[in-house]
Amino acid sequence: MNELRMRRGAAVCMAITSLFVPTLMLAYYDQVVVLVEAWWLPVSISLVGGSAMALLLDASFGNGRRVGPLSLLLGVANAAAVVLWLVAWKGGAAPSTYGSPPIWPANTVVLPAVVMATVYRPRVTVTYTAFVLILLATAQQYVKQGQLGTIGYANSLLTATLVGVFLTVEYSMMRALRETDARRDRILAASANAASRAARTAERERLDAVVRDGVVAMLRLVSENPADAETRREAATALADLDGRSAPYRPPLHVSARESVLRLREAVNAIGDDTMIDLRVDDPEIEYPHVLVESLVDAAAEAVANAVTHAGPGSSHALVGVFDAHLIRLRIVDDGVGFDPDRVPPDRAGIELGILRRMREQPGGGAWIDSSASDGTIVSLEWRRP
């Protein structure tokens, strides 16, 4: 999704910058230790550098879902580095010969706010930015004058104005990206539903052709030739149903367990006949909501299709499950190459829309994927009667 890409991109840029800035301060080590205890520099670099590295790794190699908490962690690390500077301060002001104040977090404290703006509401980002700028201004007063003053706060006010403009633009951009993603999700969902309807329509057309070429001919023969009255009447009724002259068809509100299993087998066998199917039914007459059965069949078929396509040559796959009065539990299992679910982008329509969201939108429904490289995949589909 565009929102996720923006979030990860901001996290990578800010994390790299947060790692680069403190390394420059090693060249000013002699200036730093004049003002603060020697322990402050390695401790502050470790705090900010460790947090920035965690953010960089998640944004670069993870799924990006932990960017928000890790940006908060980076912000806390920057604030802690400034607080610790006040603790380690020896009491003297920086000589006028210093070209730059040696509080190096002054160059990184606002960077986490850029990442926060891609995840959290403005009040979180604004609160953090205001707090760290006031904290930094306090520390800079002591660096420049050796005592509390006003010039540092004036500089922070100017910084806050510039940061505010940037964050306003960023929030406007994120809102536009979220609206674009929402439209994309609606289009993908509509496409998935349309594809499902098209597949069912094609199957119905195939069955219609078979019925009309064989069954209808036999029914006409029975209805138009001498036979007992009851047989002719039943044949005429069946012909009216097939020709659409009877009442329009309305799908049932509920589907029995027997019919649910039949539909599930047909959908899986349509993908290929090499999938082992083992389904246990406690009571064939148990009924489930029709819309649930439709979603369950579509999600299971999508999972089986993924196993057939991606598990790799020579792999085996199976569909196992149980249908009882209060629970439906299905497992689509393969022993193929597997994958890392955390590395799958959330905008993958087959997994996100075709399986996870389709089941989770059903009251009582849920779906989970367990997999790892070279260790196969298990897709779990469940429904509990509300």
Describe the structure.
It is built from 11 helices and 7 strands. With 386 residues, it is α+β, with helices and mostly antiparallel strands. The strands form 2 sheets. It has a 5-stranded mixed β-sheet. A two-stranded antiparallel sheet has the order 1-3. The longest helix is centred in the middle third of the chain and has 74 residues. The chain starts with a helix and ends with a strand. The model has no long low-confidence stretch (mean pLDDT 80).
For the terminal residues, how far apart are their CA atoms? 32 Å
> Taking Cα atoms only, what radius of gyration do you get, to the nearest Å?
32 Å
Shape: elongated
Assess the beta-strand content as a share of residues: 5-15%
Helix content: 55-70%
Output the structural class.
alpha+beta
Q: Unreliable runs, pLDDT <50, ≥5 residues?
A: none
SSE order in H/E notation?
HHHHHHHHEHEEHEEHEE
Report the count of strand segments. 7
